[in-house]
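User: Good morning. I'm curious how zinc ion would be positioned relative to this chain. Could you predict the structure with it bound?
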Amino acid sequence: MNDSTEKVEACLACGSRRFRPAFTSTAQMHPSKEAFLFSRCEDCGLIFLSTRARPEALGQYYTEHYLPYRGDRAWGRYAGFVRQGQQRLDRARVRAVERYATLSSQSKVLDVGCGKPSFLKSLHEKHACECWGIDFSVEGWRGEAGFDPLHLLEGGPHDIPLEQQFDVITMWHYLEHDYDPAGTLSRLRACARPGAILLVEVPNFNAWSRRVFCRHWGGFHTPRHTAIYTPQTLSILLERSGWRVVRKGLPGTLGPYILWWLSWRERRGANWGASMARYFPEFLAGSILLAPVMALRRWSLDTQLVVAVVSRPVGHKVGRSVGW
Ligand SMILES: [Zn+2]
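Assistant: Good morning! Here's the predicted structure, ligand included:
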């Protein structure tokens, strides 16, 4: 504990004050070797950072050493390959939304923590729906004319105007960074139309890659991830925040190999602040060699997707397929 850290008083999922130290994890994708304490809630089992960076000190962990923050430009001359990978991911996310909601030009969609809003752009191009994105940083869309049809806001969930009511809300790897996930989900509940659908994707604490890489597991992103959810603890959090879970424990859209490679590279040591171009050949070779292994179902749940609704919807696909 020092001036730049704070203690968490209650479990982020269920609010219990009964939790015990579980393990420490050192800062990842960061030059320091600071240790942070994860605890386990004795009531719901959530694993969360019980000593974490103060919000005002977080900036020091979102620098050039943090790979997701740098996007494809981190990969130098291989940026085009990485961009293609992002496009495949965007299409997978569009398909995930299509699976659970019927979209039209009348639909209103919000993506929280949109970063570079390429997913929203893909969704808008395919369905002409009204797309909104919000992020703490405008870096993802500043100076990019291609995102003009989108409504993009700078800020956090509490900056979303309540008069905007959405049919679909998505959060792709946002909630695990959130310091007040229950507050965020409650706010989103207030911005949701009756029958609205929520898709949340986060790393899965039950991941097989965590069992392989232990403290080096890339799903920790220490100290940026405030909690590491299982399908059960994520459901507890959602239900407590005004959402009804209709599907949980679905494979995430982010494939298992990325998490595997990040973990492997973290264990071997990397200069995360340098150009990633030096690592691209091994990244590509690994993706080919491990493809048969990563195709096994056990790996598909290393990232997880959950689908929730606010009330009984009319006409949503999920209502018919799940039969609730
Ligand atoms: Zn708990």
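Residues 79-322 form a domain with the Rossmann fold fold (CATH 3.40.50.150). Residues 11, 13-14, 16, 41, 43-44, 46 surround zinc ion (CB under 6 Å).
Let me know if you'd like a different ligand tried.
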